[in-house]
Amino acid sequence: MAFRAKRLLDGAKWDMLPATDGQLGCILRVYREWKLSGDDAFLKEVWEKVVTAMEFSIRTWDQDGDFVLEAQQHNTYDIEFYGTNSLTNSIFFAALAAASEMAAYLGDAERVELWKQGLEKGSAKMDQLLFNGSYYEQRMDEDIDKYKYQYGTGCLADQLLGQELAHVYGLGYVLPQEHVKSAVYEIYKNNFLEQPFVYSDEVWTGIEYQVATHLIYEGYVDEAMDIVHGIRRRYDGKRRSPYNEIECGNHYARSMAAWGLLVALSGYQCDLTKESVTFAPRVDEKDFCCFYSNGKSWGIYKDGEMTALYEV
Length: 312
Prior knowledge:
Helices cover about 45% and strands about 10% of the residues. The strands form three sheets. It has a three-stranded antiparallel β-sheet, with no helix packed on it. Strand 6 and strand 7 form a beta hairpin. The protein has nine helices and seven strands. It is mainly α. Helix 3 packs parallel to helix 5.
C-alpha cells in the first residue's frame, strides 16, 4: 500500500518502503468508517483489498509465522524499527481484531478463525517478550545499538498506540488490561515534565493527544488533563496560534488526534451496523456536554440525552 502519494495532485507516486503502522492503520480505518456509516456496500467493495493488506502485512513483517512482527518495520518516525516492539505490534493486534470482526460479518469463517487465533497467540507472546513489569520495551536478538534510532529499554510514548486506537474504535483490549494500565501511566510518569528543558515543547502534539486519550480510557483523567493543559498553554493565542498546532509543517494532520479526547471523555461508541449509539461519560455527567457525529446524524449530547441537529 503506497504512502506519501500525490496522485490526486497529479504528482508521481513516491518509491517508498511500505509503512507498517500506515498499512495496518488503513485496515483499522476501514473498520471505523464501516461502523460509523453502517454502509455494508462500502465494506463489501473494499474487503478484498483489506484481505490483501492484511496478508501482505503478515507475510512481510511476521516472517517466522508466530503473529509477532519482528522484521524491518518502516514507521511514522521516518525510520526503521528492528526486532519486536509494541508500537507496531499493538496496531497489528488491533487490526487483527477489526479484520476478524469484519470477516465474521461477511461470512468469511476461515479468516475469522485464523486472525482470531493469531491475535490471541501473538498478543500473549509479545506481552511475555516485552513487558518489563512496568511498561513495554523493544527487544532484538542483536545488539540494540547495531541500528540507528532504536529505543530499547526506553519508555516510548507511542508504545501502545494500537491499544489506544482499539479503545477509540470500540474493539476492547488487545493486550492484558493490567499491563496496559501500568504502561500508559508509566508513559505519563516518565515523559511528562511541567518544567521541561529548552525546545522540548516543540513536539508532536498528536502524540501527546493520543497518550492523553489513552490515559482517560485507563481511568487517569487528571493525568490526561495535565497533558492537555500543557498543550493548550503552548497554543494559547499569545505564544502560538490556537488553530495551528505545528508539527512537520502548518496545520499538520497528526494533531487531529485531539478528537480522541472527545470520544474518550464522552464514552461515545457508534455501531450503525447495529443501529447503536451510546455514551458513558468519564466525568460528572451533570456538567458534561459534547458534540457527536456519525454517518446518519450529528448533534449534542447533554444531561444524558442526545439531541440530533441534523439527520439523514
